[in-house]
Amino acid sequence: MLALTIGLVSCGKSGDAKKKAVEEEIPNVQVQQVKLQDVEQSAQLTATVLPEVKNNISPSTPGRIRKIMVEVGAFVSKGQKLVQMDAANLSNLETQVENYQRMYNRVAELFSVGGASQQELDNAKLQLDVAKTNLQNLAENTYLLSPTAGVVTARNYDNGDIYSGQLPILTVMQINPVKLVINVSESYYSQVKVGMPATIRFDIFEGETFTGKVSLIYPTIDERTRSFSVEIKLNNNNYKVRPGMFGRVDLKFGTAKRIVVPDMAVIKQTGSGEYFVYVYKDGAVIFQKVELGRRLGNEYEIISGLNDGDQVVVSSQAKLADGKKVNLVK
After folding, report:
1. DSSP letter string over 86-104?
2. 263 within domain boundaries
């Protein structure tokens, strides 16, 4: 009897322990109910500053450089002389044009009194026109002018060098305004409009913002990146922004109704780049894949995967699995 009693007590204790262990396997979780709210829609993109215009200054044919009239960093005006090439051929051609002009004048006088035919007059005029065209072309390639107002950003030769055609003699950039080219997701294609404002920040100018405008929208979408190019024009009257600078562009597209969840509810799937949350329903949790939008402080915008009113788990995710029963605690 004593042995039987001890056995029954022992079995009772063992059963209680098993029951307690099963109860302890059900984890306690905290949840937060999510709801739709207005979320500002924007895109943050990076870009490098480009000049509005970039001109390479070179003659059309190789030749000796007699004089470079500007240095790197110099601001130049449109039409300003920058480089003088060898002018010997120019002088000879100017003399030739003068001779053709005198010849044409004589033929024209003879034609007026019947001493020359129409064909002779036309031939003289043709020779003069061809010589003038050659002179103008040679003059443009002897005295190289700046086609735009800007700053000299490169010089690849010295006075007396032979221009070989491999590199331009000078490079002139127009840097007021400047432009930034960004690649925008195709999901925003219908929302980007020419003239819409863009906020621009540069790491080098900490705490300072600049305002530009969309000036050009490229008409095609890159099939590899699913994005399209947009040009942002930025006035640069003080020449503070320079080509090559790294910029961050912020475009705003109004607001949209979105689910927002605490960042502690979001789980990143290792090795896949996918994101999940645990959704509480009827005493158990569901492992739900979600598409994240922007990070909003300590919250995430959810593009898809959750519904208004869902309860998401915000604690003890390491103890959970899909379909696992849980105890809900405050």
Report:
1. --HHHHHHHHHHHHHHHHH
2. yes
Query: What residue numbers bound the domain in which 195 lies?
Result: 43-52+175-255
pLDDT digits (tens, 9 = 90+) for 201-230: 999 999 999 999 999 999 999 999 999 999
- What residues contact 77, with CB distance under 8 A and at least 6 apart? 146, 149
Could you tell me the CATH number of the domain that includes residue 323?
Answer: 2.40.420.20
Q: Residues 111-148: pLDDT tens digits?
A: 888 878 888 888 888 888 887 887 777 677 788 999 99
- Among 35, 19, 319, smallest CA distance to 327 is for 319
The CA angle 197-185-46, to the nearest 5 degrees, is 60
The reported pLDDT for the residue numbered 8 is: 46
DSSP labels for 252-277?
EEEEEEEEEEEGGG-EEPTTT--EEE
The whole-angstrom separation of Cα 125 and Cα 117 is 13
Q: Which single residue is written with the structure tokens 């995710």?
A: 317
